[in-house]
Each structure stands twice: as C-alpha cells, then as structure tokens.
C-alpha cells in the first residue's frame, strides 16, 4: 500500500485515532490476537440492528426476509474471500468452534451416527490423526479429545530450529493409518507459512482428510481453499477485521453432506418426531440454534473490505511489514522464535529478550503506548520446543505502518538497559 492508500485505510479504523494514558498515541501491534475494525464493518453490524433485525430463515414477514438476505449475502462474501462455494461455508462462533465441529462430527461418525455414508469418516483404535508441534491449542486439543474418545492415536510433525514445520517428515509420520492431517496455514507464534501442497499431496496418497487452520492466513494472504485442495478450513472474523463471536468453517461439499451434526436443536432439521429426527442439508445442518446474525453480516462486510483492498495488495503490504518487523527486533539480546528470512513468513514476530520476562517487556512497551502480546499465545508445545515459557509477539495488519514498527524498535532497544542488562 502506498502512503496515501495506507492513510486512507487507517482513516477507516476509528479506534486507531484514540490516545492512551498521558495522551500517547496508540501503536497497535497485536493484530494477530485480534484486529481492529473498519467503519464498514461497524456500520454493517449497526445497520443490521437498526434496520433489519429479525430471526432469519423463519418469519414470513418483510424484516425476516431482509435479515435472511443480509445473512446469506454475507455467506457469499465470506465464500468469495476464500474461493469456496457459498453452501460450503458454515457459520460458527469462531475458528475454535469450527475445528471442534469437525472433530466432534467425526467423533459422532465414529459412534455410528450419520449411518453408512458417514462411516468413511469414522476413526478408532489403530487409526492415526496427525497434527504439528506448531499448532494453536484450538487445532490440537479437539484432536487430542477425539483420540481419547475413539481410541485413535495422535501423532505430530515436529518443528525445526528456524520454526518451519518438518514437512519432509510427512513421508514417514503420515501413513496408511492416518485418517486426518490437521495443521496451521500460518503459525500464530513464528509467522511461518506452512507449505500446504506437499502435505495435501501426502494426505491424498494415504486417503487422509486435510483440516487447515486458516486463522492467521485468511486476513493476510490470498487464500483459495479449492486451489489449496484442503477438505476443511477454519477461520475467525475477529482476526480479519470483523467482529468477535463469529467465524466460519469451509467444508468440501461432499464431506459436509455425509457428516453427522455436532450441535443439535432448532433450525437444522427436516422432520422431528418424538423418536427421531432427520437433519437439514449443509450448511444448515451445522447451524443449530440462533446464529450470531448481526456478527455474520459484519463478517461479510469485513470480507468485502478485504476483497476491495485486494488480497494481493494486502499480501504485498505484509511483506514490507515483515521485513521491517524482523529488522526492528534485530537487536543485541533479542532472539526471534521463527524464521528470520522474509520469505515464507508473515508479520507475526515472536521474540525473547534475554534476561527479561516477556511480561516485563510488554509492560515497558505498554508504557510507551505500544500494544504487543506476551505469554505462550495458546501454543505451549511450540514454546516448549524452543525451551521458553513465554515470548513477546508483535503482529501487524493492513493498517500497520512502518512508523508503528519504528516505535517498537526505539523502545525495545531500551528494554535491556531498563532492567540493568547491557
Ligand atoms: N488458530 C490460530 C492459528 C489462532 O491464531 C487462533 C487465535 N489466536 C485460533 C486458532 C483460535 O481462534 P479463536 O480464538 O478466534 O477461535
């Protein structure tokens, strides 16, 4: 983005204009945790409540029709953003819910639910589920639980010293026993982009399903689920300039069609008797109960906003920010956890300041108005892999400027001296 374009983008984000304690300007470098929201997203959510609020898919009245239209148009926008067909997008409350949906549905299939058709999804003793050591807990715990419930075994691909997933190990770790291969597209700690193609190719060789955690990629890169050829992809609105409380699961149509539901209740059935129920086709089968409708509409607006910026432009801006962030943290006593070359990684940079706890680093930066994240970022195994309990993480988004990153460098440079270290 040119300076002019970037200024125009920033003007869309009202929160970026606020000041902090002592009138300090906000330097927001925590977009990997959650992104700020532009006016079109805020307006879409408010407009829904001001003009269209009604229960969707039910009422026979005009408002219900308008609400349903807005809700379904938003599904189209989200589908367009990731190259899916509209009926392959399931609304969820977020990526965590989307990943649990897949794991619990497969668990239900493993219990015989979903009948004959769903049996090809079933897992049990002797079967394996493969994840990676780089996963956010949201793409690890659902699979641990599925294994515990079904008797399947969890295996994983390790991470090498520079933070890349050891894709080459898929040749031996992913085998004929593997039923599911679940991995993150971009690590929320190292920023490394996982090469999807060789993992999908290996999964196809052995007939395993591929589940992609696309939380950190969808807001920053052009993502086309069909071109990637994954079976499922999960992402959250709040990381892609949308609201909290909503997210989406992409599922390949022929899989969604045979999957038993996870949550059951209203709005997802065809026929209910006291004895039994037949379920609606996807995506409704997976959308039990009242959905976060206004939030879904706003997620659609976020998808439209990104599409209008152009994901190629967004990705190019990200490359410039990645380079700047890596240069900013290139300081004595600062160790980056993850790749330090700018290729195949995004502007999510986690680091350790030798001799200073990440919470103290965060505190010093906060005093200067710089918002970063500290801790294990819901990826304890990955931190353990690097022998650290916690890191400080700076992460960028479409509205991040080189000035934001310069401020980080300026104040990070003083952290070790502040704590009496040279
Ligand atoms: N996966 C990754 C890679 C993430 O970064 C996050 C959010 N930190 C999640 C999953 C979970 O997303 P949510 O909390 O929005 O469900």
From TrEMBL:
Gene3D superfamilies: Aspartate Aminotransferase, domain 1, Type I PLP-dependent aspartate aminotransferase-like (Major domain). Its cofactor is pyridoxal 5'-phosphate. It catalyses: (sulfur carrier)-H + L-cysteine = (sulfur carrier)-SH + L-alanine. It comes from the Bacteria. The keyword Transferase applies. Pfam families: Aminotran_5. The keyword Transferase applies. Its EC number is 2.8.1.7. Keywords: Pyridoxal phosphate, Transferase. Residues 27-408 form the Aminotransferase class V domain. Catalyzes the removal of elemental sulfur and selenium atoms from L-cysteine, L-cystine, L-selenocysteine, and L-selenocystine to produce L-alanine. Belongs to the class-V pyridoxal-phosphate-dependent aminotransferase family. Csd subfamily. PANTHER family: CYSTEINE DESULFURASE (PTHR43586), CYSTEINE DESULFURASE 1, CHLOROPLASTIC (PTHR43586:SF8). This is Cysteine desulfurase. The lineage of its organism: Bacteria, Bacillati, Actinomycetota, Actinomycetes, Micrococcales. The gene is sufS.
